[in-house]
Design goal:
The chain is of the alpha/beta class. The chain is built from 17 helices and five strands. It folds into three domains: 22-154, Rossmann fold; 163-234, no CATH class; 239-381, no CATH class.
Length: 389
């Protein structure tokens, strides 16, 4: 068991015989934090848990359900600190609060509400935080917004140093990589696909492509994991009606944009292109760039507006504060349409560029007026509150 590093503050020149003269906090709350809610998901116990006996029962229940979980030791550590402080003459209460399984903002908000409910019944003026690691201690600012934190105690489990126990710990992690789907799909799935692809390349005598295949598979796996594409796909079954609006608008907008690109390519005069031309030659040709832009811009703007319109409808139905930003995006998109057409005219026909500059200045002024109007409208609609995105 860890020992307490908590020390009482002793004013200079005072004696140490009377605890009542030494204590600077009249009521102390010993608080054990379980940010990922193991006490709820494994032990089936609702938080907050207040009181010595209730905390011991909760720690025992969690230890029975999962003897390897460190949170049960943290709970017992909190009880130990509670008893030590009581023996020194402090007025103390011990409690356990928990967040949510996925951690994040929702977990911290839940912890904040539970601490608030505890303080409404036990008006502590100082808190001793007990946790089993740095992750739980990330909520310290949340706790400090409710009650001053006077000490932080971390419970560290001592493991045996023998070789056999080291192998046992290593075997446990290897077992987790094999049987836990959260890890196995990457640590086993990706190497399995690579081995299968290499075997097929050898069977079909496509050895010269094996490097490209391996790089493509690895690249795809890294992209999927980096952008949480797998989680996004798995969440399709839990989509809300507004999410379907976003999906439809994005797919429709992308198709229109692809059609715009194809139309822009077909708008380029065929006699302007020849095989010997490089990328720089194409980009440096005003006629080619202007013809491509002229054929692309209208459909491109429709495609972008379709995507932005879908996000606007989705946020509007949900009553989101982002509605104002969605409207402004559509306004700016509409105001840029004329300047883009004038830009293509400058490229292809050599017209005066001052008309383009005047259009941009007018668009900027209209954007400022629209932003001011929308800001005032939505602020009044929300009862004077400033919107934050």
């Amino acid at each position: 068991m860890p020992h307490s590093n908590f020390e009482k503050t002793v004013p200079a020149g005072s004696k140490t015989t009377s605890p009542s003269k030494e204590v600077t906090h009249s009521k102390i709350l010993v608080l054990c934090i379980d940010r990922d809610d193991d006490i709820g998901t494994k032990g089936g116990i609702e938080t907050p848990i207040v009181g010595r006996d209730a905390c011991i029962n909760a720690g025992t229940r969690l230890a029975i359900e999962d003897p390897e979980d460190a949170d049960s030791n943290a709970i017992f550590g909190a009880v130990k600190h509670y008893e030590e402080l009581v023996s020194k003459g402090y007025t103390v209460e011990v409690a356990v609060v928990a967040g949510k399984f996925n951690r994040g903002v929702e977990a911290d908000e839940k912890i904040s509400l539970e601490v608030k409910s505890i303080l409404e019944k036990y008006n502590a003026d100082g808190a001793v935080i007990v946790s089993d690691g740095e992750d739980d201690e990330t909520v310290l600012p949340v706790i400090q917004s409710r009650v001053p934190v006077i000490s932080v105690q971390r419970v560290i489990i001592r493991h045996s140093r023998s070789v056999e126990y080291s192998y046992a710990v290593l075997g446990r992690y290897l077992k987790m990589l094999v049987y836990d789907s959260q890890y196995s799909k990457f640590f086993l799935g990706v190497p399995g696909v690579l081995l299968t692809a290499g075997a097929l390349a050898v069977i079909f005598d496509a050895g010269k492509w094996i490097t490209a295949i391996i790089l493509a598979i690895l690249g795809g796996a890294f992209i999927v994991r980096a952008f949480d594409i797998d989680k996004t796909v798995s969440s399709f079954g839990r989509l809300t009606p507004t999410s379907f609006i976003k999906i439809f608008s994005v797919i429709a907008g992308v198709l229109i944009i692809l059609a715009a690109i194809a139309n822009g390519i077909s708008s380029i005069p065929t006699n302007m292109l020849w095989p010997e031309m490089g990328v720089l030659d194409v980009l440096g040709n005003r006629v080619i760039v202007g013809s491509f832009t002229t054929g692309t811009v209208t459909l491109l703007w429709i495609g972008i507006a379709t995507i932005l319109g879908g996000f606007l409808l989705s946020d509007w139905f949900r009553g989101s504060a982002r509605t104002m930003s969605d409207i402004l995006r559509l306004v700016v998109l509409a105001l840029l349409y004329i300047p883009v057409l004038q830009f293509t005219s400058v490229l292809t026909e050599g017209t005066n560029p001052f008309s383009l500059i005047s259009s941009l200045l007018i668009g900027l002024a209209v954007s400022l007026v629209a932003a001011t109007f929308l800001y005032q409208y939505f602020r009044n609609k929300k009862g004077g509150e400033v919107l934050k995105h």
